[in-house]
């Protein structure tokens, strides 16, 4: 059986990332207008319109990174572990939206985002062992989640 071409793996991986992102979006949209609009936020809180384009870029980069690792072959050392770690962090990513927006619990979401941040770091190192570019593609993601963690903490403290 011929292997799946890289471009198709990229499409599949990006679609998976956007699929999980869509689930996060459902939890976010439910709490955004009702709850989030009414709570206190710091002066550095980004405008709501910024989140969709940022996540579009990040999910695309995440999908490309996962596809590059996947393309190395599941039999290649480190690939399966790296993809499992990627799947875990993707699930944790969606869980944060559920905790923060869906359950309206910034405290619990903050502790969860710390676990998410650590899982992204592990994912970056796992990807780097397999494909350096894939690891580098996740750096903007961990930077954004670092900012989101600080923002989450600040919102928790203000409310």
How would you sum up this structure, described in words?
The chain has 159 residues and is mostly helical. It has a single domain, classed as TspO/MBR protein (Ferritin, Up-down Bundle). It contains 6 helices and no strands. Helix 3 runs antiparallel to helix 4 (106-130). The longest helix has 27 residues, at 6-32. It is elongated. The termini are far apart. The model has no long low-confidence stretch (mean pLDDT 95).
Main attributes?
Ferritin, mainly alpha
The helical percent reads over 70%
Write down the overall geometry. elongated
User: The biggest beta sheet, please?
Assistant: none
Share of β-strand residues: under 5%
Radius of gyration using CA atoms only: 16 Å
Order of helices and strands: HHHHHH
| Name of the CATH homologous superfamily | TspO/MBR protein
Number of helices: 6
CATH class term: Mainly Alpha
CATH architecture: Up-down Bundle
Flag low-confidence runs: none
Tally of strands: 0
**CATH fold category name:** Ferritin
Average residue pLDDT: 95
**Number of folding domains?**
1
Rounded to the nearest angstrom, the distance between the terminal CA atoms is: 57 Å
Alpha-beta content class: mainly alpha
